[in-house]
Here is the input.
Amino acid sequence: MTSKEYLRQAYRLDQKINSDIEEVARLREMAGSISSPLMGDKVQTSRNGDAPFVRGMEKILRLEEKIDREIDTLVSLKSQMRDVIASVPDTDERMVLRYRYIHNMTWEQIGSELNADKSTVRRWHGSALIHVVLPDHPIEIS
Here is the structure.
C-alpha cells in the first residue's frame, strides 16, 4: 500500500459511514410509516407472531451496530494517521497532509489556510507523501 492509498482510507470510510447513516434514516422513516391493510383473501399456513415493523427494526439495529464498528475503525485510523503525519519533518508538508486527510479539505481550502497557491500546495503534498513512513501494522480498510 502506498502512503497516498493509506491516507485516503479515512475519507472513503467517512463517506461509507455517512451513506450508512442516510440508509438508517430512510429505514426508520419507512418503519414508522403506517401500512395499509390487505383487502383480499389471504391464506397462510404458518403464523408469524411478530408485528410487521419488528423485522425492519432488527435490520436497523444491525446496520447501526455496523456503523458503530466503522466509526471505531475510523477513530483508530485517524489516530494512527495523526502519528504518521506528525513524523513528517517539514511543517508545511505536515499541515497539507493534516488538512487534506484528517480534515478532508480541498486544495483551494488548504491554500487559503496556508496562504499558498494551489500549485505550491500540491508540490508540498507530493513532497510530503515521499516523507511519509507507514506504520509497521497499518490499519487497512477493505
Summary: The CA atoms of residues 36 and 52 lie 12 Å apart. The chain has a mean pLDDT of 88.
